[in-house]
């Protein structure tokens, strides 16, 4: 690291998590610099989602330390640095999270979805929150849908609203968990483009993805999760182009194979 | 003057006031039963085992015993252990405890119909579990359970007739006093039935109104 490298925004040390006897995270260390975009790839069940969920602590880790925005938490229950409920809520409000299944609230309009947390968590006035929300909805091209029910939107539109909802909290870090996996292929790009533009603007992002081209083009670093550990990490040119471990080679091979299969299937449909 | 007009003029005011009694007893009971039901439904999901057990016992006991016996325990039984309640208080309390157990089950099924992602997205934005329940989950649950909660409200309304047994002057008891003086059971029980029909229809319409309002929102 060069001398004037900024201090990391997020610092994780030895993050561990088990479900019963199943060790899902076996000691993850990670530092993320401000503005960095880190992609996480890995086989199903390797702990990618569990890792993201432990970072914003909707399911806190069992062990490990986390430094973020002046907080220094120890997730060991017995530690006196274990976060209080209020600290956990504050932490979550500073970290945006976007899910595979959008999880918009169907009983609220698009606009209400976006202003709910700024008003309820940050205490913004309705006018203030609406101003921010309108600008965000305008940016994602859905201003004219602000009073519609989210259920009337396409999957891609819903996911963009979910991203806007997270952005309205002005988070320092955004977590994306396979946010395009539930989308029809033709809707994937509108969401990826929005994420790429966020990355361009310097948003710090951690994303779990199966979109290898997106990982290659947008991220500064790629982590390969392998059975609850970081099996390999580095710039995309290295991890995706010149994998070292046989397990990563095998994983990339299977992904490539899937891609080929789906694109052949698509061709079949067109003909 | 026809006999019917005569009857309406003579007995109408009494029926009206008895119907009014039924109406407010029902509304208060429904309100209290929702509180009991919500408390027990949330209790069933508590982290604390003791709380879960109490909630489970409550539902088990109430659903497994007749409403009339529950009313008798509270009105006739409690004085023996030093708690003496007016017929009205005992009546509302007994019916609300009774209906609350059914409301518990209704809310429980409503809660389980809401995907976990709804809670997670709210928690992930920094809301507390309590705020999440209040502003994200319960409004959705309420919409889902509206039809079954309406049915339960209708049961409560009709169950108020059981309170005639503990001297609450509602429609049934009022009719019985008239019958013992006039020996016209057919006329007066039909009158009671008609008034109940009017009340249940009003309640159903009210629920339908809410359902339409919600349907527009979605
Ligand atoms: N709440 C839970 N209770 C029990 N086991 C869980 C729980 N959450 C995850 N697991 C298990 O932990 C392991 C890792 O799950 P995780 O969802 O983190 O994997 P993933 O890498 O995100 O996989 P995918 O690519 O399929 O999303 C899996 O074996 C899963 O079954
Ligand atoms: Mg996952």
Task: Name the CATH class of chain A.
Answer: Alpha Beta
State the order of secondary-structure elements of chain B, H for helix, E for strand.
Answer: HHHHHHHH
Uncertain segments of chain A:
266-271
Structural domains of chain B: how many: 1
Q: So what's the oligomer here?
A: heterodimer
Please give the order of strands in the largest beta sheet of chain A. 6-7-8-3-9-10
Report low-confidence residues of chain B grouped into runs of 5 or more: none
The CATH level-2 architecture of chain B is identified as Orthogonal Bundle
Helix/sheet category of chain B = mainly alpha
Q: And the CATH topology of chain A?
A: Rossmann fold
How big a fraction of the residues of chain B is strand? under 5%
Q: Major sheet of chain B, described briefly? A: none
Q: What is the number of beta strands of chain B?
A: 0
Q: What are the secondary-structure elements of chain A, in order, as H or E?
A: EEEHEEHEHHHEHEHEEHH
Q: What gross morphology of chain A would you assign?
A: globular
The hetero compounds bound to this protein are: adenosine-5'-triphosphate, magnesium ion
Largest sheet of chain A: 6 strands, mixed
Q: What name does CATH use for the topology of chain B?
A: MetI-like fold
Q: What is the number of helical segments of chain A per DSSP (H or I, 4+ residues)?
A: 9
